[in-house]
Design brief:
about 260 residues, 14 helices, about 0% strand, globular, mainly alpha
């Protein structure tokens, strides 16, 4: 029901499930998820009503099972994003993250980092990312998130270090390869090295959540352009468009460089 966008039907089925087994924390989590998705496609009044139902369902899920992490993460995101009129709030999000830490220390600290970053408190956000890394130093997801954070705050040398740490742990991590290339574009440093990272990325089929080959070729074209290799840049932009004719970024880049 979620995949085909029939959220009203999903709500009905989830409501039936909790009516049959109202002691199931999981069913209440699913009900909250259904209400949350329905809220996103509703009008203003429906959005507010369904958002509150989403929150209430997740609160019930946590009441039934305080260690239901799906529901706790859902509540954290809700509190962080929802306006006060809908029951959101940063303090509520912080309290939820502190509860998550008791169950999932790494995820809880990453949640706090997200909260602090949303408040532009980058010093505390960085501390939380580092705390998560110290708890689980072999967790590539932590270092990836730390690298993304450093990219967002334009600390590109630190971003590079974080992504290199990912490769120290898993030298076939394609997300890190792509981001090392991307960081080089942002910083203007290690551009020759970036070529190798993008080429390695293009040797492996991207997973569903990773950038497409089209975008990797576009990024590689940007590297060549920064290295003043116009011919290679044009070649990569053309490859990007050939793979995805809807790649507007590659189209703009090709138009600009061939004027």
């Amino acid at each position: 029901m979620f995949k085909n966008g029939k959220y009203e039907e999903a709500v009905k089925y989830a409501e039936k499930a909790v009516a049959i087994e109202d002691s199931s924390s999981h069913y209440y989590y699913i009900l909250g998820e259904a209400y949350g998705l329905l809220a996103q496609k509703s009008g203003l009044l429906g959005k507010l009503s369904n958002a509150k139902k989403c929150r209430d369902a997740w609160l019930k899920a946590v009441e039934l099972d305080p260690e239901n992490l799906d529901a706790r993460y859902g509540l954290f995101d809700y509190y962080l994003q929802a306006p006060p009129i809908a029951g959101g709030g940063k303090e509520k999000a912080k309290k939820e993250a502190e509860q998550i830490i008791k169950i999932d220390p790494v995820g809880g600290h990453l949640s706090l980092a997200q909260l602090y970053e949303s408040e532009k408190n980058y010093t505390e956000a960085e501390k939380e990312f580092i705390e998560a890394a110290e708890i689980d130093p072999q967790n590539t997801n932590v270092y990836l998130n730390l690298g993304y954070f450093y990219q967002r705050v334009k600390e590109y040398d630190k971003a590079r270090e974080a992504f290199l740490k990912v490769l120290d742990i898993d030298d076939d991590n394609m997300a890190a390869c792509y981001q090392l290339g991307r960081t080089a574009i942002f910083s203007g440093k290690y551009l020759e090295e970036a070529i190798g990272y993008f080429k390695k990325y293009l040797e492996n089929k991207p997973s569903q959540n990773d950038p497409s080959w089209s975008y990797a070729h576009w990024r590689l074209g940007m590297v060549y352009e920064k290295l003043n290799n116009r011919e290679k840049a044009i070649e990569e932009y053309k490859k990007a468009i050939e793979l995805d004719p809807e790649n507007k970024d590659a189209k703009k880049a090709l138009e600009r460089i061939t004027r």
